[in-house]
Specification:
- 2 copies of one chain form a homodimer.
- The first copy, chain A, contains 14 helices and 17 strands.
- Chain A is an alpha/beta fold.
- Chain A has 3 domains: 167 residues, Molybdenum Cofactor Biosythetic Enzyme, Chain A (3-Layer(aba) Sandwich); 78 residues, Alpha-Beta Plaits; 153 residues, Maf protein.
- Chain A has a 6-stranded mixed β-sheet with strand order 2-1-3-8-7-6, sandwiched between helices.
- In chain A, a hairpin with a 4-residue loop joins strand 16 and strand 17.
- In chain A, helix 2 runs parallel beside helix 6, helix 3 crosses helix 4 and helix 9 packs parallel to helix 14.
- The longest helix of chain A is centred in the C-terminal third of the chain and has 21 residues.
- The mean pLDDT of chain A is 93.
- Chains A and B meet through helix 1, helix 2, strand 2, helix 6 and strand 10 of A and helix 1, helix 2, strand 2, helix 7 and strand 10 of B.
Chain lengths: 415, 415
């Protein structure tokens, strides 16, 4: 590990992470927050619910870094040992904090649910530590200095962790003094990672500042620019030069920056154009609706959606002619076009999306294998259609179908 | 960290993980594979593309563990340094391996794409190491013994890593000799983590074998039983004794085991009862449909779904009376009941789910704050209803609303 100066570490605690029961999504979220405040995350360590290991890890990481963020192990049960680990590493005792106890009692009162005796354990704080209020759960967080390192323990439940990190921890930590990092992520649809890599080869060379990297997920490519400098203004200037260059080269494919989703870009364009959208989903089964309604404000542009699995529903809700279903089969270009046109008409919306396909694992034929998906977008002036052959599992095929549908609509909205 | 005996570690390498651009899903997958072969994963460490740190981490982890699985840093670019780190830790030089070079050339030939000069770097192996063939990418893996620890380096691309882990690495590692681990996870709905913790307190005591722990996510509580013994049969026997005990105490709340989702449990019960389901979603916007259609075979029981954001859609699709909407507001118990009854009737399904609420961040009032969600399940014999007050962000409120709706249906199906 490098100098302590300006570095941070993340410690994720939980046996379930070591058993592989769940992926750790908290650490990436914390790393992104620290990075954008100019801190360099030097490492992420995941360990189990073992007090000796927890204490040793806190001692070691606090000795090496200025900031340590810990998640997990703050629950009310006997396998939750982060409180004890912090006390052990700090060489102090645990004591019940009256304010935290009041908060926990208030939480149960608001829920109109009796508080259990073991929830009282969650009001224990290491002496010299400070409680961090958890407005949406029972586990308070803890802030304490150990080895000259600012240590923060947060609950492992992602929604609670996120609220407390943004609302309480990041304001205490603040921006890293005397060193700045600026990060920009540009999100692209409609071009492959190797194509993008070739287009940006010179910018992606090792040792360059800013560094430029790519990563791919479900058909979306993200180009990441990381600029380091002494001041935020210098870092921003470096970053912007690269951003302009990349935007020039890949303008046609960039739909957003810094976490904007493709659904978010679509909702924004629909809103700007005073347009509305309706959905007719078969194999995606509500996933496109879910992605769109993840976006706050989407209710203003999404009129309605139909999950039409059965032929009967396709006929009754969307007006797909029975003879088209009989002649071409439910998974076909003809039916998909009728679904998009039908949902646009029946809902009185500006745009309609129709998706039908075979997500897998069953249902494939020689003619129409698993992964075959038909997607149509009906607009005021045209209807576009695409036949896709995805090669993934059920989850992968469904998310790619949804992303492709949103990408096609995004493109139509821009044209 | 505990004794070296039987323990394994995972090392994830990549700057993008420390910047928080992506979550590390590889490590959970590897941890699950090692656990089911009887190995105890003692820790997961994530570090950046820095040769000194990579070498130090390999030295430290190989000294402490019998198995070390490394992901990332095997690409063709200058920031890929895992090969050098392994050579440094082993105290040997890198040399080009003719067989690996042939494999890489063959890969590009098959793609009909010219091989770039820098892909040749990927044929470098530490002396004494063995190449692991990558059939779906350019980066070969590496197997090498360091400090008496079996070390394996695999590409960071998840699909390549998974194929190589299952096909090549796990067969070499095999089951842990003289030690077996059995894991069972029981998934519960309708009871809080602290309640469950109180019920299982004696089983959850530290140092007990099997160990019993809990974790919570979006209203689902998972109870995890981990039994260690000399043989698999002994471990299974220990595990089963605890499982029976826990099932006895919490029978009413356990909907499945070992990764079964609540939607999966609902689809199974509907299928067994020859029953069908239709959805009327407002604030969840397709999320319940998405969760149900994640389950292969759900098309046999899910007739259709309606995403009815607007009042017009609630009236036209579900037959919610305009005067009920006007009198109570779209977010109300009365409208929610009409949605559930309406969708059941209009679709001719056995069960109907209606959900309406305020997911946030906007839209809340003093009377109906963000997080207020009404959920109704209409069945052949009864209609049940619940008013919920979730305290999370938009994502959190939506997933909790969807899980609660599925839980209520699950309960009705069992009664």
């Amino acid at each position: 590990m490098p100098d302590k100066n300006g570095t941070a570490a993340i410690l994720a605690i939980g046996e379930e992470l070591l058993l592989g029961s769940i992926s750790d999504t908290n650490s990436a979220h914390i790393a992104a927050s620290l990075t954008s405040a100019g801190w360099k995350v030097a490492g992420i360590l995941t360990i189990g619910d073992d007090l000796t290991e927890i204490t040793a890890a806190i001692l070691e990481l606090s000795a090496k870094h200025e900031i340590l963020i810990i998640t997990g192990g703050l629950g009310p049960t006997l396998d939750d040992l982060t409180r004890q680990g912090l006390a052990g590493a700090a060489g102090v005792e645990l004591a019940e904090n009256p304010e935290m106890l009041q908060n926990i009692k208030a939480y149960f009162r608001a829920l109109q649910y009796p508080m259990k005796a073991n929830n009282r354990l969650q009001a224990l704080l290491p002496e010299g530590g400070r409680g961090l209020h958890n407005s949406i759960g029972t586990a308070p967080g803890i802030a304490i200095e150990i080895n000259g390192c600012q240590c923060f323990a947060l609950p492992g439940v992602p929604s609670e962790m996120r609220v407390m990190l943004a609302g309480q921890v990041m304001p205490i930590i603040g921006n890293r003094p005397g060193g700045a990092i600026s990060v920009r992520e540009l999100h692209l649809w409609g071009k492959g990672e190797s194509d993008i890599g070739a287009t940006l080869a010179a910018l992606m060379e090792r040792g360059r500042n800013p560094s430029v990297g790519t990563c791919a997920a479900s058909g979306i490519i993200t180009v990441r620019i990381v600029a380091s400098a002494e001041t935020k203004a210098q870092a921003e200037a470096l970053l912007q030069a690269d951003e302009i260059e990349i935007r020039n080269r890949l303008a046609e494919n960039i739909f957003g920056a810094d976490g904007i989703t493709l659904a978010g870009a679509v909702v924004k364009l629909l809103t700007e154009r005073n347009a509305t959208l309706a959905l007719a989903e078969s194999c995606t089964g509500g996933l496109i609706g879910k992605l769109l309604t993840d976006v706050p404000g989407s209710s203003a542009v999404l009129t309605e959606g139909f999950i039409t699995y059965t032929n009967g529903a396709k006929i009754a809700r969307l007006g797909v002619p029975a003879e088209v279903l009989a002649g071409y089969g439910a998974v076909s270009e003809a039916v998909c076009r009728k679904m998009a046109e039908g949902v646009r008409e029946v809902s009185g919306s500006t745009f309609g999306i129709g998706v039908t396909g075979i997500a897998g694992p069953g249902g494939g034929t020689l003619d129409k294998p698993v992964g075959r998906v038909y997607i149509a977008i009906a607009g005021p002036e045209q209807i576009v259609h695409r036949e896709c052959n995805f090669l993934h599992d059920r989850d992968g095929n469904r998310i790619r179908a949804a992303i492709t549908a949103l990408g096609m609509l995004w493109r139509m909205l821009l044209s």
